[in-house]
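From: lab user (bench 3)
To: helpdesk
Subject: output format question, protein + fe (ii) ion

Hello, I'm new to running complex predictions and I'm not sure whether the block I got back is the full result or only part of it. Here's what I submitted:
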Amino acid sequence: MAQTTDDQRSSGNESSAPPTQPGPSVQELLDTETRPVPAALRDRSRVPLDSGSVDRERYTSYAWHRLEVERLWRRVWQMACREEDIPEVGDHVVYDIVDDSLIVVRTAPDEVRAFHNSCLHRGTALCVEAGRSESFACPFHGWTWDLDGRLVSVPSDWDFPHIDPAAYALPEARVATWGGFVFVNMSAESEPFESYLENLPGQFADWPLEERFAAVHVCKTFACNWKVALEAFIESYHVIATHPQILGSTGDANTQYDTWPAVRHVNRMITPFAVASPFVAAETSEQEVAESMLRIGTGGEPVEVDVPDGTSARAFMAENMRSALGGSWGVDLSDRSDSEMLDAIEYYLFPNFAPWAGVLQGITYRFRPDGDDPDRCLMDIMLLRPVGDGQARPAPAPVHELGVDQGFDEAPELGGLVGILSQDASNLPRVQQGLKTSGYGRVNFGEYQESRIRHYHQTLTEYLERA
Ligand code: FES
Ligand SMILES: [Fe+2]
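Helpdesk reply: Thanks, we reran it on our side. This is the complete output you should expect:
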């Protein structure tokens, strides 16, 4: 974990640092750390962006949605599953994205492949759910492919003299892995995964997500466009109105938003916790900050703590987390900085993947359309926890699906996030509803606090303009 100097702090344009944001800044909070701070947290950057406003058709129009299918979803690298979801040869999951469906299968101990989920006889979907098998047999007439995608059985093959089995391998998508996640790409022409990831692997040098396991996996259906949901989770501007109960311990308006020069697919925010929001800081003591943060974990139940005089809530809460989490997870967190223990350090990989860094949260989000419908989407929430020192890797949690009418309170495994996610969830269908009836017809984004939204819209435009 390298400590950086002031001169190394910004890889972007220093003159474009946020001009009027209230303090303390994330960088000033890092200056108070007593442990080494990962270099990635010192990498503050901001680039000029367009997309100050976009047309609402991006969220509501079927034609736009279809353009996304053709030019986005069929061309980008997208997270399909965790490697741990398919640990043994023959283990597979089905990854659906709008009309497209891929069988993502482990074909060897160190190889994962992705086949288009469609029989080459008359088109039947070969798989409808995750499982383990030695081959893929079509339920309709029994044509069968082996794990390598070779056609190995055609009942009454005398009736298909025109079919050469060697030419009827299942069509494949490209596969790559990073951080314990499996990514797929349906286009043979689109850019290599390594360049697509840009600075993401370097940013995660101190947070190897492949060493974690998915302790929780919830997949919720929302009655909104996938971008409406995504955008609600990549800015902290909405905390003041949507999550007022956490202002006592959330530096919402102090959040640092990072975009880097020539980086199209990655951006980041760091929202400090265990510091009072600038909206309430004047009347909040360090003791109250700590109590406020603990109440998030208990879903609002009061918690009594005693922050010693002269100790900041951040230092106190970080130490509290090091011992509590280190103990319950069975890992040594003694060298982890306060920021890693406390803050929301959330990255984004275009178009729909948002893994958090640091220690405490371990959250990962994925957003995608739900079928061929611009008004519905699926949001996956995984909680990635460390595997205890010397312990065997636990099996990943099965997916807990929540329908459009089910609330997050039906997923208590999300712990302290339930209340916050429920607040976010109540906004989303209202946004979609309002967009449809908008007499104004456009959507506006703030210059800094919504810069990540501007950034990805800029990249989305580039993709959709590419014939
Ligand atoms: S449709 Fe698959 S074997 Fe006939
Ligand atoms: Fe929120």
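A quick orientation on your result: The longest helix spans residues 417-437. Let us know if anything else is unclear.
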